[in-house]
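Practice problem: predict the structure.
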Amino acid sequence: MTTVVALLLGYGAADAYDKVPGVLTIDDRPADAEPEPPHVEPVLEPASKQAPVPTEKGLARALGGKKVAQPLGPRVAVIVRDALTGDVLYADHEDRGQTPASTEKLLTAAAIADGNDLSRTMKTKVVSGEKPNEIVLVAAGDTMLAPGEGDPTAVEGRAGLADLAHQVSASLKDSDQQGKVTLRLDNTYAKGPRYAPTWDMADVAAGYTQGVSMIGLAGDRPQPGVPSPREPESKVLKTFGKQLRKAGVKVAVDAAEKTWSRPSPKGARTLGAVESAPIGDVLAVALEDSDNALTENVARQTAHADGAGTSFKDVVGWVRSTLTDAGVDMSGVRMKDSSGLSSGQRIPVRVISDVTQMGITGSAPSLTRVLADLPIAGLNGTMYDRFHTPQSRSAAGIARAKTGTLTGTSALAGTTTTRDGRLLTYVINADKVPETSGTLGARRALDQMVAGITACGCR
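Answer:
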């Protein structure tokens, strides 16, 4: 399928399915593929705290040396640490700024998790307007609203517009509301620019990513060749209008964008409300699918709640300052967005490793949950179709990682457990992958390196 997409759309900068270079990773599970395995409970504890600690020489052997790393090109940075103690066990060019691609999302996730309640939900509501017979749909950050009924077991589609419409209908009847009502949108919550100035709009048009919004529908996240609506707000309004009519409400929809910036009246009566999945679950989906816009959405909301601005630059500044305050040395870090999509960004693997360690050692307990939800090698998310070769199979079901892919860049950052039961964190980044290797060659090399440190006692 990827070959077809590449032929139709060109490679551009997209890492759709994490197989071609670019910006967005989506789980490309073929229709005839084996069903996904049952949920695996996250484990971030070593099998034994007395398990032997790998040595530097042992890890160097396990990583495979120049022969294994050759497809990654001349700029490879590696760091492996003992998760229990935080000690650096092996490092090479760990302080050199590397193009992070989507591994940058780990920094953003750490900032979101730092001191914030990941159990909070986004409440989309409808209130009475300032004009007679006017009702207002108030955006609250949820871009995965079910067009119909919500699914209480799902993350995408937890809150449903049909459920909201039934609540509004009942409230209007209780208030003896007569005649036709006008529906408009209050889109003032965490309002900010839709696109970063450093994003390539060709990627948006091709369906590799989408703009950042504070309301949208489940199922409208982008796919290669199937871009998301440019104005998801309009689609939500029209869909909700249809649900209101089905619920017996006579309604006219005011979808004019000029009305979106008008806030709903203070103290307005709430006519109905639906809640999203917890923000931590939404963040997990963003990381698992490497969804740039969803990551930026959650970051913007959290920065806004923390008193920061809502521009891409403001949110980047908030990520940096939050991590700095948490004790992370951000030397050598250059960020232009919070998702890894923009070109010209640099993050040393040491910084990504430091952030990962925060979630293991307990200095950032909420981050532990984020790390525990990272895709598992060979099983799910952006890792489901990896680690299946004889050279890499030993890490399947054990290693977890955030993937990162851009043109010329391939990276993995996560956790694994050695054969002896020692929990390790690792970051491997190559940002000058030769065209002769390509993304697929780089992936195989990275997988083999992670498998090497997983399979060994590394003594």
